[in-house]
Amino acid sequence: MSDRLAWERDGRDWPNRDASRFVEAGGIHWHVQQAGQGPVLLLLHGTGAATHSFAAMIPRLAEQFTVVAPDLPGHGFTRTHDDSSLSLPGMAAAVRALLDALAVDPALVAGHSAGAAVLIRMAIDGTLAPRGIVSINGALMPFRGVAGHTFAPIARVLASNTLTARAFAWWAEGRGPIRGILNSTGSTISPEGEELYARLARNPHHVHAALVMMANWDLERLTADLPRLAVPLLLIAGGRDGTVPPDESFQARDRVPGSRVVCLRTLGHLAHEEKPAEISALISEFWGEVGATAG
User: Fold this and answer.
1) Is 21 helix (H, G, I), strand (E, B) or coil?
2) To which H or E segment does residue 49 belong?
3) Is 126 helix (H, G, I), strand (E, B) or coil?
4) I want to staple 115 with a disulfide (CB 3.0 to 4.6 A). Which of 44, 69, 183, 189 is the partner?
């Protein structure tokens, strides 16, 4: 079992492989997919995922945009030298360095789960200036109650033990454990998508990055800063989301002036993988609103 995913082995049939490239930026060896022409659309996946999460959306959106979709630090085929980028501010700084290296200026950005938090953090801090932000089941609110007092400490303990990632990767060798985790999201995805998640979960390096990211994820400040967001925000919420309650999108809407929620009641946390055409259409429609207002 290798500590890192190997592109020629593990990426041999990676979705949209022809769009992949590797870039050095901010001390990180990035895997990025870029496709299409037009205004730049940046896509950021969530914790524990990779570019495969947008596999069916990238070709659709590339008909209208120059789509840029990286594997986040430590995830998928993006390699880090240490764990310094595996926090909300760390991710934001790393993505900024990548955009500088690519010399792209996103006109529109869309993020799933934790990816949405990174994009909103960057926009509030002024390191990103898109015309609009799309949050797909965005993880924007801190855990409350018992979960808030136990989740992060447990994640920190797991992340601090180098054997944990290896043990999880060994446990994930069978398809059953990953199927159970995916089912808990409230989504049903294709067997091909399930196999790609299993491939990632069998890799200790990827698992370690996801654990450290969860251990370092602090949303208290982001939640407090949401009223400062001056960029149009579309919040897409899956009504069956078992990971991020859909009510959190409505809470975020109430904090961000002018934002709105589209609730897709039959979809779960991986809504964009269940219905990629529907989510892509919502992104295109939103661009029709915010792009037309640019001078």
Assistant:
1) strand
2) none
3) coil
4) 44
